[in-house]
């Protein structure tokens, strides 16, 4: 067995109503002046109210930064950093989807003033220290609450990542009740996103692909595959919501150590240029990238396919890998997601630009089980259009 390392958060708190313990957790493990990072929609909907009440009830001073937007640009990070410094924050709590959690990570890193955003893009460039950090997801998708990654939109449309174990949070707090109000379309898109994390982590060509990540990816896919349609159909199905949230976290732990690949690389330009939500971008690209990979790298897909679709166990390796892609595409249809790039406003003559931008995602493409050329990327986009 090859050598590997596995890193994750120091503590996970899971359970319905867990958000109501936030004040107690902050008193023991975070600090007395907490900056809460979220978005304006969640704030207006009252989703963060239990967190605020718990913090204030414990005597914690709180300020709220709610200017997070999807695919957050650099100026949002800079504004959060400035707000945290002005308040004198000694801890950060992020509540929301992946964008809020990513902003919270970088805020905790930048507020101490030791590092600048422009200097920390890439792998291992952020060295800290950072403020104590707790993340609580309101979607079952990104797994950001357990990953050492923050994705930012730079310039007009390009996405860059800050990747460092320094931004692994101290505590991941998972309360299924925070996801009960999630609309069906968002549930579907974020759920497929989490499944992509599990699949790409399991099949990753990264040298740190390891037995722990693969075991977590399998359990994540089992939970997600068994719950996603129930959660989409009935958003108040408590068991389905719990399985989705736990599955998304496990998938996050898997890909945090065995990184994702071409599905994400080709999805990022869709968000950057057309503001397609990240989960939907991944869902649009998933079956097409899997079909491409399965031509030469089918063993891993054949191994994991029956976890989500037990009936595929009867097929041979090659047939099982291809059937896996078809089953995932059909699942996306049943969940009510858009199926073609044209459905989300992508003009056909823009595909070469998407392919050019996707090929810049070298930190992801090196993990793909089949090498991707410029021509390959364009062909995949064309099949998805």
What secondary-structure arrangement, pairings included, does this model have?
Layout: E1 11-14, H1 22-30, E2 33-39, H2 40-45, H3 49-57, E3 61-68, H4 74-87, E4 91-96, H5 98-110, E5 122-123, E6 133-137, E7 149-154, E8 158-163, E9 171-174, H6 184-203, H7 211-233, H8 238-257, H9 262-274, H10 278-294, H11 299-308, H12 317-334, H13 351-358, H14 362-365, H15 374-384
Parallel strand pairs: 1-9, 2-3, 2-4, 4-6, 5-8, 6-9
Antiparallel strand pairs: 7-8
What is the assigned CATH homologous superfamily of the largest domain? Dehydroquinate synthase-like - alpha domain
**Mean pLDDT across all amino acids:** 95
Largest sheet: 6 strands, parallel
Low-pLDDT sequence parts: none
Widest sheet: strand ordering:
1-9-6-4-2-3
CATH architecture of the largest domain: Up-down Bundle
- Helix and strand content put the structural class at alpha/beta
Q: Please name the CATH topology of the largest domain.
A: Dehydroquinate synthase-like, alpha domain
Order of helices and strands: EHEHHEHEHEEEEEHHHHHHHHHH
CATH class annotation of the largest domain: Mainly Alpha
- Strand fraction: 5-15%
Tally of DSSP β-strands: 9
How much helix is in the residues? 40-55%
Number of helices: 15
| Total domain count | 2
């Amino acid at each position: 067995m090859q050598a590997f390392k596995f890193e994750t958060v120091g503590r996970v708190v899971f359970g319905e109503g867990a958000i109501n313990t936030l004040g107690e957790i902050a008193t023991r493990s975070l600090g007395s002046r907490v900056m809460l990072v979220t978005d304006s929609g969640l704030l207006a909907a009252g989703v963060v109210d239990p967190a605020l009440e718990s913090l204030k009830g414990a005597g914690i001073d709180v300020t709220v930064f709610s200017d997070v937007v999807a695919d957050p640009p650099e100026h949002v990070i800079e504004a959060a950093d400035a707000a945290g410094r002005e308040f004198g924050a000694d801890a950060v709590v992020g509540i929301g989807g992946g964008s809020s959690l990513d902003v919270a990570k970088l805020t905790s890193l930048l507020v101490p003033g030791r590092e600048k955003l422009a200097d920390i893009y890439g792998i291992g460039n952020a060295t800290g220290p950072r403020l104590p950090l707790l993340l609580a997801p309101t979607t079952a998708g990104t797994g950001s609450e357990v990953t050492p990654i923050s994705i930012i939109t730079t310039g007009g449309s390009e996405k860059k990542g800050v990747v460092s174990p320094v931004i692994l949070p101290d505590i991941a707090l998972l309360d299924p009740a925070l996801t009960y109000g999630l609309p069906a379309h968002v549930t579907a898109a974020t759920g497929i996103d989490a499944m992509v994390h599990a699949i790409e982590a399991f099949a990753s060509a990264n040298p740190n692909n390891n037995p722990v990540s693969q075991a977590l990816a399998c359990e994540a896919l089992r939970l997600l595959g068994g719950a996603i349609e129930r959660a989409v159909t009935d958003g108040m199905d408590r068991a389905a919501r719990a399985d989705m949230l736990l599955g998304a976290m496990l998938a996050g732990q898997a890909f945090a150590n065995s990184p994702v690949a071409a599905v994400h690389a080709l999805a990022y330009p869709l968000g950057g240029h057309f503001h397609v939500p990240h989960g939907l971008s991944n869902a649009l690209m998933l079956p097409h990238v899997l079909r491409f990979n399965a031509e030469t790298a089918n063993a891993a897909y054949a191994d994991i396919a029956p976890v989500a679709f037990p009936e595929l166990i009867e097929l041979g390796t090659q047939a099982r890998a291809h059937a896996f892609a078809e089953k995932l595409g059909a699942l996306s249809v049943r969940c009510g997601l858009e199926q073609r790039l044209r459905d989300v406003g992508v003009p056909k003559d823009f595909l070469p630009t998407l392919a050019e931008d996707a090929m810049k995602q070298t930190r992801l493409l090196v993990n793909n089980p089949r090498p991707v050329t410029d021509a390959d990327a364009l062909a995949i986009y064309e099949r998805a259009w």
